[in-house]
Write a structure and sequence with these properties.
heterodimer, A: 276 residues, alpha/beta, D-Maltodextrin-Binding Protein, domain 2, 2 domains, 6-stranded mixed β-sheet, 9 helices, globular, B: 216 residues, mainly alpha, MetI-like fold
Chain lengths: 276, 216
């Protein structure tokens, strides 16, 4: 009986394996056909960080959402493209883009300081880098940060600004230490718990975190400002121009403002306006 | 960033990795022994509690455990933590987790000893404690060494989970440098660092194993 079961089980495994192979073959075939029978439906692969609210995140319905996701979906709808979400680890964004797993990096992506690394779309949002502290904190100005522990998310523009000699490196050197977290969510928990004294963050992400938890505010002095745009593989100007055209059209027909209205943290920073 | 700056930065991260590694080993190897005694305890509640502890340590991701040790005092007890607590939380998390694994390895060794040896020791008039330390333990150590080596090598690589608490060990530095320099090179460097560290571990453990083969 046991032997029989074993044979049955292994046969099952083998069958599923084979079925898996078959399936792959057929999908490959169809994709080849799709291309050959004159570009039926272009699949636009939107690369983004799933942990970057309110630009891209898992929304309350448990689905991929956020301003950038909705705007990208609107662009795809405009051209009749198929939208494909490619969530990636923020650290791996360049590898994903260069390997062709996604067509663009569109995830609250700062263009400043990276001008030469990508082919950039027009900027669709402004942003400011700020310092966030608890309301009862004794930190009132940037100078008060001397000897304090400051948190930041890895590979964000706030982090790069603090590491940049021409940016805020001097300020950063006055900190007791700069704690580099994988996500702002954990950094914020750490701020709440008392593990760090302040967070360097862009104003929209910061507002999103503070909207859920009262008792925190930004310092009046800012660290710097930046523009958000969509980064394409260097030289991919054709796709970039198409997206630019779509963005302009969406600004004209009001879709851009409509999506922005759903995100009060972002709305004040939207920089594209319909032409008179 | 020049290659030498990258190497220098990453070496400092490797030192932090090794510090965490050595302190974790120093804590978890003895603690595992205590855990195995507690698990084999004749007092039922103690052995049950130990079983639950091992089940939780092995059944949940280490990264989650680290977050719980770090944020637990605040979210559960409402205590404010300090920035210095981070390293302590990391040590507690790693030591508690690895002690559970080591305890199971020790148990496998202890339980593989034939009953005849205990009986013979009893006839020779050895006390239970003396039997364990003079006769059983030396043989157990010999038998479990390959399994311990495995676990130690895993620990070297697991230290990268400390990045969850923003500990600047070598792998999180590799990720940060890679992102800011748009280069894959830091990952290769990190890979070489880990490989060299584990190669040393394997050599040291091999030497110890050899020195234990006193009957051959």
């Amino acid at each position: 009986m046991k032997k029989f079961l074993a044979v049955l089980l292994s046969a099952l495994c083998l069958a599923t394996l084979l079925a898996g192979c078959n399936k792959k073959e057929t999908t490959e075939n169809t994709s080849v056909q799709a291309v050959s029978s004159e570009e039926e439906k272009f699949v636009f692969k939107h690369g983004f960080d799933l942990d970057y609210p309110p630009y891209s995140y898992i929304n309350d319905d448990g689905e991929v959402g956020g301003f950038d996701v909705e705007l990208c979906q609107a662009v795809c709808e405009y051209y009749g493209w198929e939208y494909q979400a490619v969530p990636f680890n923020w650290d791996a964004k360049d590898a994903e883009l260069n390997a062709g797993n996604c067509d663009c990096i569109w995830s609250g992506f700062t263009r400043n300081g990276r001008e030469d690394d990508y082919t950039w779309s027009i900027s669709y949002s402004d942003n400011t880098q700020m310092i966030m502290v608890a309301d009862d904190s004794d930190i009132k100005t940037l100078a008060d940060l001397t000897g304090k522990v400051v948190g930041v998310q890895t590979a964000t523009s706030a982090y790069e600004l603090l590491q940049d000699e021409e940016g805020q490196k001097k300020l950063c050197d006055t900190f007791a230490s700069l704690e580099v977290f994988d996500t702002y969510t954990v950094a914020f928990s750490s701020l709440k718990a008392g593990g760090i004294d302040a967070i360097a963050i862009d104003v929209t992400s910061g507002n999103f975190l503070m909207s859920e938890t009262p008792g925190y505010h930004f310092l009046e002095e800012t660290l710097g400002s930046e523009q958000y745009a969509i980064g394409f593989r260097k030289g991919d100007t054709e796709l970039c121009e198409k997206i630019n055209a779509a963005l302009k059209a969406l600004v004209e027909d009001g879709t851009y403002a409509e999506i922005g209205a759903k995100y009060p943290e972002i709305e004040p920073f939207l920089c594209l306006k319909p032409e008179e | 960033m020049t290659f030498s700056t990258m190497l220098r930065t990453m070496s400092s991260g490797m030192l932090r990795t090794l510090l965490l590694f050595i302190l974790t080993l120093a804590g978890s190897i003895p603690l595992g022994m205590i855990v195995v005694f507690l698990k084999k305890s004749k007092i039922r509640p103690i052995s049950w509690l130990t079983k639950i502890y091992i089940a939780i340590m092995r059944g949940t991701p280490l990264m989650l455990q680290l977050l719980v040790w770090y944020f637990g005092p605040y979210y559960v007890l409402g205590m404010k933590i300090t920035s210095g607590y981070k390293f302590i939380a990391l040590l507690i998390g790693f030591i508690m987790n690895y002690a559970a694994y080591f305890a199971e390895i020790y148990r496998s060794g202890i339980e593989s000893m034939p009953v005849g040896q205990y009986e013979a020791a009893e006839i020779l008039g050895y006390s239970r404690i003396r039997t364990f330390f003079k006769i059983i333990l030396p043989q157990v150590v010999k038998r479990i060494l390959p399994a311990v080596t495995n676990e130690v090598i895993t620990l070297v690589k697991d230290t990268s989970l400390a990045s969850a608490l923003a500990y600047q060990e070598v792998f999180s530095l590799a990720k940060q440098i890679s992102a800011s320099q748009t280069s894959f090179l830091p990952f290769v460097v990190a890979g070489v660092f880990y490989f060299v560290a584990n190669y040393v571990v394997a050599i040291v453990m091999g030497r110890i194993e050899k020195s234990m083969q006193y009957y051959k």
